[in-house]
Amino acid sequence: MSDEIRTSDGELVSVKLKKVESRRRRTAFLLVTPLLLFIIFAYIYPILQMLTRSIDNTQMSNLLSQTHEVIQNWDGEEMPGEDVTSTFYFELKDLIANKQHGKIATRLNYEKGGFTSLIKKTARKMDSFDESGNFLDQFMDTHKRWKDKEYWLALKRGTVPYHGRKYLTAFDYEQKFDGSYERLPEKKRINVTLWLRTIYVAIGVTFSCFLLAYPIAHLLSVLPVRYSNLLMICVLLPFWTSLLVRTSSWMVLLQKQGVLNDILVWAGIVADDNRLELMYNMTGTFIAMTQILLPFMVLPLYSVMKTIPPSLMRAATSMGSTPFHAFRKIYFPLTYPGISAGSILVFVLAIGYYITPALVGGAKGVLISNRIAYHMQQSLDWGLATAMAAILLVAVLIVYWVYNKLVGIDNMRLG
């Protein structure tokens, strides 16, 4: 006689339970499918595309596909042979006819300065070429830069489908045509300075927010509910105001003829001809970013402090401890989860901030995010912009990894 339990229709109960559980999992998956698709197409796919664009140069290899195949066999010791120059001529001629030569001019200019004007001038004189003559001589007659072997080496390197040289540029390094690496000339070294400035601002703003948010959060946690709710509305009020409006307000307050300087002059603290420089420098950047990001530090701290029983401090003082010692040994360590959660929130937001440094900081407050925007909108060097963005993404992931190792994501308290 079998001990297996069956349902009324004769099916094993264990099999029936597995079918029901499987059906529930499928239903749950179908319910979250729209959200999953949204995350994939609106978040994961753009990030992967960004990472690919930082090393992708397939447009050049496609536009000059035959030139790429031929020029890779050139050793670069002497000037290129007729096979290279003739192939390049016919492909360039087709690109000019299709009005696509501007694309290769822009991309080659990243490899060697002066390529844009070189291609444009050559395009204007293509009709004078004798297709039965020596193409190298005719190129050199068109523009003297064709006599410089480095431009042909730049053409060879510029048609490679994939390369990681943009990541070198992001740290002010370059790869020479002989394969060696060296730093960019001093007047062009700006990216490392911006990386260090960005980290400095992110850490400084995080620390400033902590110093201001800790007493605010403590006050919120000990006040009666009717007063703490009113103060909480004041903390959350900036969330209901446009970021651009808040930044513009700080510009009105901090400028030389602004409200803050007027009050200081009226109070006799500073002279009218010696007003404080609070705009278009790091001072204005720190002030504005700290005020804007302060709620992201207050809320995690408040959520942790609210759970700490007041009796702990009273018990410590009743046993002979001073209020400061009790705070340092009992209260402050219990707020570590809120401090860590608020710090990582503010740091990650500050390291990628864009609008406030651009408007309030001026040239002295430019951060790496502003440089990324410059390459995306003005220089149109999308490869370098995406390389910088990828480095910034990796930096944030490292911060999360370190946070998880030291504190643990499960211990994050966001309010």
Short description, anyone?
Helix content is 67%, strand content 1%. The protein has helices at residues 13-53, 58-63, 65-71, 82-97, 101-111, 115-124, 135-142, 149-158, 165-169, 191-222, 225-236, 243-254, 259-266, 282-305, 311-318, 323-334, 336-351, 355-361, 368-377, 382-406; strands at residues 173-175, 181-183. The protein folds into three domains: 1-53; 59-163, no CATH class; 193-411, Orthogonal Bundle (MetI-like fold).
Polypeptide structure, described:
This protein is mainly alpha-helical. The chain has 3 domains: 53 residues; 105 residues, no CATH class; 219 residues, MetI-like (MetI-like fold), CATH 1.10.3720. It is 67% helix and 1% strand. The chain contains 20 helices and 2 strands. The protein has a two-stranded antiparallel sheet. Strand 1 and strand 2 form a beta hairpin. Helix 3 packs antiparallel against helix 4 and helix 12 runs parallel beside helix 18. The longest helix is centred in the first third of the chain and has 41 residues. It starts with 12 loop residues before the first helix and ends in a 9-residue tail after the last helix. The mean pLDDT is 85.
Please count the beta strands (DSSP E, at least 2 residues each).
Answer: 2
- Find the CATH superfamily of the largest domain: MetI-like
Q: Using the alpha-carbon principal axes, give the shape.
A: flat
> What are the segments in which pLDDT stays under 50 over at least 5 consecutive residues?
none
Total number of distinct structural domains: 3
Measured between the Cα atoms of the first and last residue, the distance is 59 Å
The arrangement of helices and strands along the chain is: HHHHHHHHHEEHHHHHHHHHHH
Q: What value does the Rg take, in angstroms?
A: 31 Å
